[in-house]
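# step 3/5: fold
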Amino acid sequence: ELSLLVMRGVFVAMQAAYILWAVLAEQRPRAAIATLMMFTCRGLLGCSTQLPLPAEFLGSGMDFPVGNVSFFLFYSGHVAGAVIASIDMRRVGRRRLAVLYDTLNLLQFVRLLACRGHYTIDLAVGVGAGLVFDMLAGWYLDSKNIDSGDNRCCSSCQKALVSQKLTS
């Protein structure tokens, strides 16, 4: 079980690192905006739909959070974050990396079902949430006339394209 937690942590760290790299190094904010929107919505849905625990509920040290605190977030943020990162990778032509993320996400999907970490609907809605929030982030950037950087893969590629245009 510990190895599964480590694998999940590594995959989540990979998602976060990729999204941070896209926004900080490549100046492509769309994936970061989509992720912020997704986690904000997830938190609001969780807070607005949680039910109080019965008075006779006996919590254990294995519960998260510990004690008699109701904790519920509707869809899988891990799955949605991986979908957002994968879409962004495809957008800039990193297809092999996107296939790797999709494969790892599918394995995560199976692990969460097998370990009863989420209901099936949480995982399916997580995929949909990733798609929807990526689209909403694109609409947001378009409405603000902000260059989302979707047409470049990195700043060094962009510099190479500019210098190539200047020489031709």
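# step 4/5: annotate
Residues 2-52+71-167 form one domain.
# step 5/5: archive (pending)
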